[in-house]
Amino acid sequence: MPSTSPGSLSLDAPTAFLHILPGAPTESLQATVTFIYRFKRYVAYISGKQLNILNAPNTLVQAITFEHDLVAIAADAKTGKLSVASQKEAWILEPLTEGWTKVWWEKSLLLRQEDEGNEARWLSWGTEGELLLAGSRVLTLFSTGAASRTTSPRTSALDEETYEERIGLWSKPVASPIRQAEFSPTSSLIATCSDYDRLVKIWRRLSFEDGLFDHTYLPHPGAVTHLQWRPMNDTSKERRTSGISRRHEEEPEVLYTIANDGLLRVWRTGGTHHLDILILHTSIDLVAAIPDSPSVAAKGTSNATRPARYAVMIPCTQFTAAVNAALGIPLDGKISHSKEFLKEMASKDLDVIIAFDGQGRMSAWGLQSIGHKRRPETPTQVEPYHIAHAEGLLVKLPNSTPAISTCWCQDDRFHLLSHAFGKRGEVSWWQGTVETFFSPSAPGADRLSRASNWTGAALSEWAITQQHSSIDLRAISTKDDDEVLHAIPVTLPSDPSQNCIVSVTRSGVVACSLVLDGKAQISFEPVASYETEISEPGVFAAGAEFAALLSQDLRSLTIVDLTDGYLEHQQQLNNTATHLNCFTSSPRHNFVAVGYDTVVDILAQGSYQDRVWQTVKRVSIAGLGLQLERVSWTAEGGLALTAGNGKFIVGPEIDPKQLDAALRQRVGLAEGETKIRLRDFAQRLKRPLPVWHPSVLADIVRHGHCATALTLIAKLSRQLKFYSSGDDLSPVLDENVEDLIRQKGFASVSIGKDMADELKELLDEKELPLLSSEDHKRLTHVVDAAVYVKDHVNGLDTNALRYLFEWKLQLLQHRADTGAANGTTQPNGVHHEFVPEMQWREITLAYHSTTQQPLLDILILHHDNKMNWHAARLLGVTSWVRDRQALASVFEQLGQTSYRSSQPPDPVNASIYYLALHKKATLLALWRIATWHREQRTTANFLKRDFNQAEAKTAAKKNAYALLGKRRFHYSAAFFLLADDPASAINVLAGQCEDVSFAIAVARLYCGDGSSTLYRLLEDRVVPQAKKDGNRWLLSWCHSVLNQPMKAAEILVEPLRGIRKWTQDEPTTLLLYKQLRQAPSDNEYDAVLRAARVLRKKGEWLLALDIVQRWEFKSAQNQARPVHAPRTNGLVDGIHQELPDRTLASQVLSPEPPSFLGGFAEPKAAQPVDEKAAREAKAAELLAKLKAKKEDSIASAPPTEKKRAEPTQFKEPDANSLLDTFGF
After folding, report:
1. How many Cβ atoms are within 10 Å of 1067's Cβ, its own excluded?
2. Do 275 and 345 reside in the same domain of the chain?
3. Which of 112, 493, 747, 895 is most buried, most CB within 10 Å of its CB?
4. Same structural domain for residues 634 and 542?
């Protein structure tokens, strides 16, 4: 059933396809029709149960599906109505329009046959909506006009739709099944012919109201193969008259017939004095017209074995109009003999007959128009004129292949539509210019070219077929016997000879298994598996580098990288998807096609930035009345779609208009570039980012190379002064990559606020290549943040600078967003100024900073010494400040701010803060002066108790539980602290209040960093959730607080379990690991390679080179002994002395380890040795050296004794010297 208006299906217009294969045409003599509606040419043909309507060689307007196979189709050239027939019924389709361009057809009438044994074979439109249906037993006439208002129309309900039903006006039995039946242009005559019939029967209508006819027969020497009426001239006025009127004297009606004797006969109606209805006017020998045809040599020239010929006719009016259009094309001063020849032919008013032999030869002849009015003294030329003869045409058919052709002229173009009956059947659309086609001297190959070929070709001829060998899913081993739902064989890109099976289980685990060919059977060796948490995936597709799967409800898309197992993309779809197909144009250039009912979205894999996978192309068949059944990729990167009987081929180009503005700017379109090939587009997406990209500059600062970032900013500012759009700009700004990587100090950096402001003005005026407008804004923020950080390089270490950079960058980005400039309002009505939310990456780095106090002073000063808990929680201050005194000072300030947060001040808000600080006396003093509070007297008296007594603790706990019932959770936690029950207080804060950060702060202050309460909170709540989320930073921080330095370092490099995302393996984890490591890790080598791959996928190749070139592995032999500095548990003038400077210690105590670039081989494990023998050998060697040295010194001793040098050893640096270093 066809849909209703195509406009109601989707807002997406149908795509312009490269090729269309609507389906193999039905092997019927009336399978195709061409007509004009609203000044546009349409071609319709039937393919099985489907009707296809096209208006160009590769433009399908609509496809309509019926319940039964169709056998015939006809079009009413005046109204645009279509009629199609199956063997038992016929339908009328009426055109509907929307605007001037949108046209579609809908079923309007159902035509029922009264004779159930009749099988329809031919349709023909008459005048005033009459339709003739010729069948195997009867000839029936239907009226398709508006029904009479006096009677109710008869209706039929089919497929939940109601249609008006019509029966025939009259029926006439026939002696044999009719092969062809055609109304004449005036509908006064009907010509019919049966199979293998030598007679054409002419029915002359004696009455248009009743089925009254007289008959005559046109004899032929052989079986008639085709008959066709000459259409009326476009300038003629149609008049409805009977066949015996004087209409014939004004313009005769002409009938062309072709028999198997190879002759085309022209019949015309006679005048009032002629006894015959039709008389023979002339004939053309189609075989003799092409005497040198290979078919003549093969078949001979006898009448019994005359070869096949194919003929088409062009009426005089069409030919003349086409010639005039060709003559109207300017010659630009050139001489065209073809146009002169055509001008002569047009002057003769010729009806053109074109004969083809199917072997590349054609011959065109002209008959002086039979309907042309002449003066009586002007004789009529009966003999045909020869127009053109050509060989070497591209129009060829296999020998003796039946075919039916039709042609028309549109402007100065000649069109030929040929329906060939073969094994598959095909409809070919040929095009050429009128001047070239009818030229007496043009080469045959230049006359016509095939514009389209509609056939039932297999999809494998166009698309890459997915290998689906017989895989026994039960043979694939899985963890916990998880059932395998889908398995797809792929070829490894690194080793094309090695086959691999990518499978997905019921629980959503994607696994890769190598295929091992054994003698007895094929086995599978598991290689890797990755979790997705998509239970029972509905659709699964995989390539060599990635896999895509749809959820069970087909509304969620997940894409997994098979190299590192990262979950690269998760998307909630607006509609139900039904198809997935993966494609890799070249290594690391991946695409996935997501198919819906009528739309296919192509997603491309980009760099690891905001969105890894983005929609870059949309292919639509919406409005065509079809639904997608299969989606496949072509070898070049196009798409091959299957819908209904048809196949649609989409080219491998991307239209930049379909991309969003940011993506268009990012791929760098050249001026005037309207198409991008898919392979080229993938390369542009994956190319390295230039050093002026904001993500690159920001990550350079995060990696501790602030001086390098400032150098690049200064160089960019200088080059932009002389840059204009279209100029070449070096991706590294003409800097030496080695020098950029090795730059450490700020001595050579000369950039300040003035240069930064100048650069921002240049960025407002000029557009940098490969940057979107949003990237331009981010670049200005990064420049300001980097310049701001430069002012603090003498007072903060690298970890603190990283924290400060991220904090400042978020502030700048927020200020640029005018919509959020005034902060946010919480549901309780409390207004908060904007505070940057620091992630656990910055919190963990700040925790290991040795300059926490200067960093803390900057943050407190920014908040005007009025920091509240909202700001402290977002900044993570209570998590990264390690000194208890500084943490207590911050917490006391939070208590004061909370106390003054309401008017009048409320001691209830400050209770939890002061009790966590063990300052009950301060809290009591606040209550004593809070005379305005209704709970002042009772609370003050209660706080006067001695809570070291059991009775007072019990009373405090009772109050805490009562407050829990009233949902005053923070106040309840305060009473638990008053009862000296920190575990309950922390459980309330972490549970009911859902504020784990506050619970951690209270546990640190009330119990201490080494307390079991804090450890229990971290181990029971924080660590499990961090493992579930795969948060390396939070896990490392937890192990550092738990005094587990080895685990704190190891968690930064060890592989994570569960769902993995590339952000979990961000390369900055290696920078902290390098500070914390005390011993070599078995996972260090893989972590470095993994970080380099992530940086490369982010497009930051400069930083990837920095890691692999400068990374130094710490071997077990050269491992430095841990330095045990005195634990002061405090700050000395702002410098934390709790943790030693591991980087400095490793530089002093350990020799320089080998470079990472020395070899990419995995470090070899140390060989087992006999420790006792090694010690004895080493001792003997040292003893021999000392003995030799002593003897040499005695022999060459000077007369005066020199002072011995002090032994070399590590000396703890003085705190004051460190203060001098940081400018304090």
Report:
1. 23
2. no
3. 895
4. yes
